[in-house]
Amino acid sequence: MNRRLLGLSLAVLLLLGACGKSIEITDEDDATPAPSQTTSQGNAGLEVLDNSAEENGMNGDGGTMIGAERQEQPADWVQLTAARGGDVSGIRLVDIHQSSLYRFDNDSANPSKSTCNDMCALTWPPVTVQEGGRVYLEGVNAQRIGAIRRDDGTVQITAGGWPLYRFSGDSQPGELNGQGRDGVWFAVSPEGQKVE
User: Fold this and answer.
1) Domain extent listing, the chain
2) Which one, 54, 59, 108, 157, has least CB within 10 Å?
């Protein structure tokens, strides 16, 4: 692996602690683990906490958007919650606003890679968080949550390796207007599976 790729390479690194786990951000271009290089590059990573934002004394929504609202910068923190209901039979992920989260069949989980950029990302905004931010979980296994660096440099949350998105056509809590869209967009389970 050349030095440039090694410098860009960010790997998944789990550090178990009293507050949760810390995730290093995986570079989409190279999923080869290189924890020591990652640390020396100053990757702030993310902290994943196994309870809600409210239980951790957080107010508001961390800057998380709804529907077609434009996100000027990644959220300070994100909450992922396992939910039932709507037009799907299984458990699916929602955010702090109860907005449904989706996965894209044209992406990859191994290695994690987002292929939804530019105009696609306007219709399907990626679930992003600031580097060094926090991800709060309710009913979600922390071991299934990760993060990648997108082509534009932002940090996108993953579940089971699959990058997570909102749908600009969902404006109310629990809506699933993106479900099955174009045969490639589906509500996502806490493990990253399609919910149909």
Assistant:
1) 50-195
2) 59
